[in-house]
Amino acid sequence: xxxxxxxDKAAPKYAKDPISDMDGYxxxxxxxxxxxxxxxxxxxxxxxxxxxxxxxxxxxxxxIGTDISPQMIAIAQSKLDATSPAQLSFAAQDAARLPEGPxxxxxxxxxxxxxxxxxxxxxxxxxxxxxxGLLIAKxxxxxxxLWLIPLIIPLLKAIGKAPYVxxxxxxxxxxLLKETGFVIDEQLTxxxxxxxxxxxARKP
Length: 204
Ligand SMILES: C[S@@+](CC[C@H](N)C(=O)[O-])C[C@H]1O[C@@H](n2cnc3c(N)ncnc32)[C@H](O)[C@@H]1O
Fold this sequence. Notes:
Number of strands: 7
CATH topology: Rossmann fold
Order of helices and strands: HHEHEHEEHEHHEE
Structural class: alpha/beta
Largest sheet: 7 strands, mixed
Oligomer: single chain
Distance between the termini: 39 Å
CATH architecture: 3-Layer(aba) Sandwich
Bound molecules: S-adenosylmethionine
Shape: globular
Strand order of the largest sheet: 3-2-1-4-5-7-6
Number of helices: 7
Strand content: 15-25%
């Protein structure tokens, strides 16, 4: 099953499930509210059903949310009404094809470990940002969590119950960002069965 089909099928349940680590979510949401400025043009790739976009778009000048899954985007769009920020829009698009910029900040929340072509996407993000632009990401660290999980994922993937997931450690994620050319301004690891690393990476 390809990624788009997997996430399309997952969308209705994803939309209903509660956030698994609400404290961790709020901690990084608060941090992003500080980092995002009113003049910023923001692109969020892998925005899912748009919950975070709806919380952040008010504070910036333009916010585009994209996702590979048309079903995720349809749910995100269904949340828009007359009271939604006018500067927010959604589009179904693979992270490997970034929408036309300019983008001052690119957000990738719970996404990068799901990309088979991660190095290529990181390079495209880097190229799309101006000097001083930010990539803010939260990334699952399969290698740093419970040892059983990396063994189970391929089995679940074989029966269509898990997506592609790259086995990354915190060190590997930080190295990938640095090798692309980014400077790491902030990093924060949140514990869990699959820990996550929140990174603020700046194009020098
Ligand atoms: C774990 S969910 C995270 C959603 C949202 N960012 C959040 O934090 O709740 C991963 C999302 O990435 C999307 N996704 C997976 N592969 C993608 C790709 N190649 N390009 C764009 N989006 C992708 C999925 O459709 C899904 O909505």
